[in-house]
């Protein structure tokens, strides 16, 4: 256990936040993250250590503003400016009700109490499980966790440099002790996004650990 780890996974005040382990982020998916599928057994083992588990699902309407297909003349991975700020454009992914939006079938955290869907507003993206990209609209997750007495969040899943990082930064901003279990995440790494994410996370006080440092 590292000196900074003041909450064990099994503590009722700890929660594991499993981000976007959906087919569209797996190899062969619409927005594939390399080796994303290899995380499933590790996340299953970690999940078994926690009494509190929350799973997120990126869950977009067909005409979502983050899709390049919603913007004439734009291609995936272009960046545009929206009223709420810069937005990377993505291939259509995690469309509500499609196979690509489903959680990986081998993800086995049956005791998870909450599956939180995000990115449901057609006009606002949400990498974060806590606050949408307008930086104002709340998903309600902070309130849910706080009302259950949870003060510490451990984040895993996809993608490290987007939804994992934004969720961890917002968890920290909402006052939670926040860790990223680095070997239980994989990154997209677009234009240096992974380096930027680690710098922002460190500056915000999010602690990077490896799964081997966790004991139940
Ligand atoms: C994600 C890009 C777009 C993610 C979701 O889960 O990291 N990335 N939508
Ligand atoms: Zn998305």
Please describe what this structure looks like.
The chain has a single domain (14-214), classed as Isochorismatase-like (Rossmann fold), CATH 3.40.50. Helix 3 packs parallel to helix 4. The strands form 2 sheets. It has a 6-stranded parallel sheet, sandwiched between helices. Strands 3-4 form a two-stranded antiparallel sheet. Helix content is 20%, strand content 21%. With 216 residues, the protein is of the alpha/beta class. The mean pLDDT is 96. It binds pyrazine-2-carboxylic acid and zinc ion (ZN). The site of zinc ion has 6 residues, from loops.
* CATH superfamily descriptor: Isochorismatase-like
**Treating each run of at least 4 consecutive H or I residues as one helix, how many helices?**
4
Rg, alpha carbons: 16 Å
Number of folding domains?
1
Estimate percent helicity: 10-25%
By CATH, the architecture is named 3-Layer(aba) Sandwich
- The percentage of residues in β strands lies in 15-25%
CATH class: Alpha Beta
Query: What is the general shape?
Result: globular
Could you say which structural class the secondary elements and strand pairing correspond to? Answer: alpha/beta
- Largest sheet at a glance? 6 strands, parallel
Topology-level CATH name: Rossmann fold
- List the secondary-structure elements in sequence, H or E: EHEEEEHEHEHE
How many E strands? 8
Strand order of the largest sheet: 5-2-1-6-7-8
For the termini, the CA-CA separation is 10 Å
Bound molecules: pyrazine-2-carboxylic acid, zinc ion
Poorly predicted runs of 5 or more residues: none
Please state the average pLDDT score.
96
EC number: 3.5.1.19
Organism: Pseudomonas abietaniphila
Enzyme class: hydrolase
InterPro entries: Isochorismatase-like_dom (IPR000868), Isochorismatase-like_sf (IPR036380), Isochorismatase_Nicotinamidase (IPR052347)
């Amino acid at each position: 256990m590292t000196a900074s780890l003041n909450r064990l996974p099994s503590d009722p005040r700890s929660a594991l936040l499993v981000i976007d382990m959906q087919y569209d982020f797996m190899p062969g998916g619409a927005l594939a993250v390399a080796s994303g599928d290899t995380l499933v057994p590790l996340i299953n083992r970690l999940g078994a250590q926690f009494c509190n588990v929350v799973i997120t699902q990126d869950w977009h309407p067909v005409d979502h503003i983050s899709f390049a297909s919603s913007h004439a003349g734009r291609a995936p991975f272009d960046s545009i400016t929206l009223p709420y700020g810069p937005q990377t454009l993505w291939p259509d992914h995690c469309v509500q009700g499609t196979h690509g939006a489903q959680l990986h079938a081998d993800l086995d955290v049956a005791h998870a109490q909450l599956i939180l869907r995000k990115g449901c507003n057609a006009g606002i993206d949400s990498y974060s499980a806590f606050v949408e990209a307008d930086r104002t609209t709340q998903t309600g997750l902070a309130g849910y966790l706080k009302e259950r007495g949870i003060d510490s969040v451990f984040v895993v899943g996809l993608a490290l440099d987007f939804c994992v990082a934004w969720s961890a930064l917002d968890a920290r901003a909402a006052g939670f002790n926040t860790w990223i279990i680095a070997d239980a995440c994989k990154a997209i790494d677009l234009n240096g996004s992974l380096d930027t994410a680690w710098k922002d996370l460190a500056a915000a006080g999010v602690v990077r650990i490896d799964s081997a440092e966790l004991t139940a």
